[in-house]
Design goal:
Helices cover 33% and strands 24% of the residues. It is α/β, with parallel strands linked by helices and 235 residues long.
Length: 235
């Protein structure tokens, strides 16, 4: 059973088709890295998976009981978001908003989920700290904990290590890998090809003239692996 499956998915951006007849699927436990050239539609695809962009054609189907609003999402950070005036706890537990519905307060279960994920990511001691005062790496851990509060099944990460120093980047990749090993499916948009090949079970390589989807081993044996030669350029 697939968690997410696209069939002949076609998407547009500013009235121009950027993705045409895209087919891929994500199964429970997968670690899918999405790479590709600028303008190949990676950001548009992310919006479609989250329900923020309506397909021009084709289908996005959700299986294994997954609802579209149950995708844990870690977006690219903007400078304004880095200066968000809230406590770490407030940011983390806000990941439970979709499940809270119209209730005015968080339940004991939701507060427990927030505490569990802060402990999981080693940020419990930062609970009362202002988010805006944290380092970039600490902020990303907070946002990852928030995303985990929104899901038990799947994370969607959009270039999560952008702006982090090399040591923090390695630590963050380790966290994501451990979360995947713990049973959470991961979809990560990345410009880091070396990390994609190292960690991913599957690769979706998006290019204007061709797209590849398959296992990492199949990717490395395919013509699409020539994309590696360009390094980070154009991804």
């Amino acid at each position: 059973m697939s968690l997410i499956k696209t069939t002949n998915l076609t998407l547009s951006y500013e009235n121009m088709t950027v993705i045409k007849d895209l087919n891929f699927e994500v199964s429970p436990g997968d670690y899918l890295c999405i790479v590709g050239e600028n303008g190949s539609g990676k950001s548009t695809l992310v919006k479609a998976l989250l329900g923020l962009k309506k397909p021009v054609g084709g289908l996005i189907e959700f299986g294994d009981g997954l609802q579209q609003n149950e995708i844990g999402y870690l977006p690219q950070q903007t400078n304004a978001q880095r200066d968000f005036p809230a406590s770490v706890y407030e940011v983390v537990i806000s990941g439970c908003l979709n499940s809270r519905g119209i209730r005015p307060f968080y339940s004991a279960q939701e507060r427990g989920i927030a505490a569990e994920n802060m402990e999981r990511l080693g940020i419990s001691e930062l609970k009362k700290r202002s988010y805006r005062e944290l380092s970039g790496g600490q902020q990303q851990r907070v946002l990852l904990a928030r995303a985990l509060c929104a899901t038990r099944k799947i994370l969607l990460l959009d270039e999560p290590v952008t702006g982090l120093d090399p040591m923090v980047t390695v630590e963050f990749y380790g966290l994501i890998s451990q979360i995947n090993h713990d049973g959470v499916t991961v979809i990560m948009v990345t410009h880091d090809m070396s990390a994609a090949v190292k960690y991913a079970s599957h690769i979706l390589c998006m290019r204007e003239d061709d797209c590849f989807f398959g296992s990492t081993e199949e990717f490395l044996k395919s013509d699409s692996s020539n994309f590696l030669k360009g390094g980070d350029k154009g991804v």
